[in-house]
Write a structure and sequence with these properties.
Helices cover 42% and strands 25% of the residues. It has 547 residues and is an alpha+beta fold. The protein has a six-stranded mixed β-sheet. The chain has a five-stranded antiparallel β-sheet with strand order 4-3-7-6-5, sandwiched between helices. A five-stranded antiparallel β-sheet has the order 9-8-14-13-12, with helices on both faces. It is rod-shaped, with a radius of gyration of 44 Å. The chain starts with 6 loop residues before the first strand and ends with a strand.
Length: 547
């Protein structure tokens, strides 16, 4: 606070005016009146305090509501939660003459609290004893509330905010709780040191910052962070903020990338499914008349053979020895005995083969049919049978598949194509696990069993593979996590199954495993759900979970 010298002029009778200096107290009063801050003078010897009119008006005490010169008055108006800390600092201020600067809440006469900022200094006597304290108060409520709004706005932003210079040096860093962006930074030495960028992220960030400063425009890049068994993706947006500095927003877009990948995979599967359904339909037509003709040939051969047998009997019973010899010779040349024995079984095998192909084609049509994207009552047992038939090429040389399907299973409201996909993913995983355990020496076992409760349909898929180690069991549903060798697994099968069962159908997907003995995946689907989720929405049921 600066004091401006003020001169008081007095008429001297000669027409002139002689300047008369005012007293220090008058100058102080003028200074107190001119400042926009409230001032409190504490007389530490007498134990009194003088409150300026500006200080009283700041808290709504003016006119008839002026306050008495009570030295503890400012303490009684202080918010109870702030008072202990303020008094501790004030005591140290008076005892050691330390500078006092603090912001706290004080009560306004009309109700509520105002944020008050105080600066205070202590005057000591020749012995160093404090005799007076002069405190300046300012109402900073608007500033504090604006800062609170700014903090709230920052808290609402899920992105990591980092301020860097154009060389990529981190100046400020704010990482929201629960985000994975902390992996992009490593701590520097010292408690107050700003973390530095980890790996080559700093080089990428510096390059983006230089481009942003040079072009004075927003610049972006994506950064993949590779882990041991997975990969995370981050989107970085750099905007120039003046003076060679850049503000960057870093967002974890791993889930977005996963959804894009799953959508692309789903689109591919849908296209393949539509193509397979068309091919199956085309194959089914010739199969029908081939089957009909084979059945006709089978029936005709049986009747012809029976007629020939009757002719043979007539010839053998005749008295013409020469005719009998000719017949025997002809039978040997045509291998009639062999033909009569093998023809029926050969035609029977043809009929069974045609029926088997027709069954596969029908299962393929059911499995790959585009169907509807909305849930509808579906035969869960039939869906499982179709999936097992379609996946036969995966398990026929690796495992024996058995079905134990409850006969009175009611229709399950679901998107049957998505359930087919989940069951297929689990069967394929089981085949891979069994192959890793037994190789080509022994066949494993896969069992699919359905049951029901009053509320749920239950499907259990059990294999006798090697089981899942405890170290990775908690991560098997993570997108892109796989224990298979590169090129064999994508890490999306179980993640997609989890998303479809839990998120889309409001069901549950559980995994029970014992190392060396095998694994069981249990799917539970609600039987009584009025409305399941539409595509891309969360299910109405909030009871879904994973164990």
């Amino acid at each position: 606070m600066s004091v401006i010298p003020v001169a008081r002029y007095k008429y001297d009778g000669d027409g002139g005016a002689a300047p008369q200096p005012t007293s220090a107290s008058v100058l102080l009063q003028l200074a107190l009146s001119a400042t926009m801050q409230g001032i409190v003078e504490h007389d530490l010897v007498r134990g009194t305090s003088t409150y300026s009119e500006r200080w009283q008006a700041m808290l709504g005490f003016q006119g008839e509501f002026r306050l008495p010169p009570n030295p503890e008055l400012w303490q009684t108006l202080t918010h109870p939660e702030d008072l202990p800390d303020v008094l501790d600092d004030w005591q140290a201020h008076l005892e050691f003459s330390w500078p006092f600067q603090r912001t706290w809440r004080m009560q306004h006469r009309e109700g509520g609290y105002r944020w008050i900022e105080c600066h205070s200094v202590v005057h000591t006597d020749e012995r160093g004893e404090p005799v007076k304290a002069l405190s300046l108060f300012a109402d900073v409520t608007e500033r504090v509330e604006a800062a609170a709004r700014h903090v709230a706005l920052l808290d609402a932003i899920p992105d990591t905010i980092v301020r860097v210079d154009q060389a990529g040096v981190v100046l400020d860093l704010r990482i929201p709780a629960g985000t994975g962006t902390s992996e992009l930074f490593r701590s520097a030495d010292g408690d107050n040191a700003v973390p530095q960028c980890a790996g080559d992220f700093g080089e990428r960030l510096a390059d983006c910052a230089r481009r942003a400063v040079a072009s004075n425009t927003l610049q972006t890049f994506e950064y993949p962070l590779r882990r041991e068994q997975s990969i995370k993706h981050f989107e970085v947006r750099c905007a120039p903020s003046g003076e060679g500095q850049v503000v960057c927003l870093i967002r974890d877009v791993t889930e977005k990338k996963q959804l894009e990948s799953q959508l692309l995979q789903a689109q591919k599967l849908e296209s393949i499914g539509q193509l397979a359904a068309g091919i199956a339909h085309e194959i089914n037509t010739p199969l029908q008349f081939i089957g009909d003709n084979v059945r006709f040939a089978q029936t005709a051969s049986e009747r012809i053979l029976s007629l020939v047998e009757a002719y043979r009997q007539v010839v053998q019973d005749s008295a013409n020895e020469e005719r009998r010899k000719e017949l025997a010779k002809l039978e040997r040349r045509l291998k009639f005995t062999f033909l009569s024995e093998q023809s029926p079984s050969a035609l029977k095998a043809c009929v069974e083969g045609v029926e088997r192909v027709a069954e596969i084609v029908m299962a393929m049509k059911e499995f790959s049919h585009p169907g509807t994207k909305k849930p509808a009552p579906s035969d869960l047992n039939r869906a499982i049978q179709s999936t097992v038939t379609v996946s036969r090429n995966e398990w026929k040389d690796i495992a024996e598949v058995t079905l134990d399907l409850q006969a009175d299973m009611p229709p399950v409201r679901c998107v049957v194509g998505e359930i087919n996909q989940c069951v297929l993913n689990i069967i394929v995983n089981a085949c891979h696990a069994i192959a890793d355990k037994y190789g080509a020496d022994k066949q494993g076992r896969i069992e699919l069993a359905t049951s029901r409760t009053e509320e749920e349909a239950i499907l259990r898929i059990t294999d006798n593979g090697p089981g899942i180690p405890e170290a990775v069991k908690e991560r098997i549903f993570d997108p892109f996590f796989t224990t298979k060798e590169v090129g064999k697994g994508t890490g999306q099968g179980l993640a997609m199954a989890r998303s479809l069962i839990v998120d889309r159908h409001g069901g549950q997907l559980r995994c029970e495993t014992r190392v060396g003995e095998g694994t069981t995946f249990e799917i539970r689907l609600p039987l009584h759900v009025p409305e399941l989720s539409e595509e891309g929405e969360d299910p109405a049921s909030a009871r879904a979970g994973i164990e």
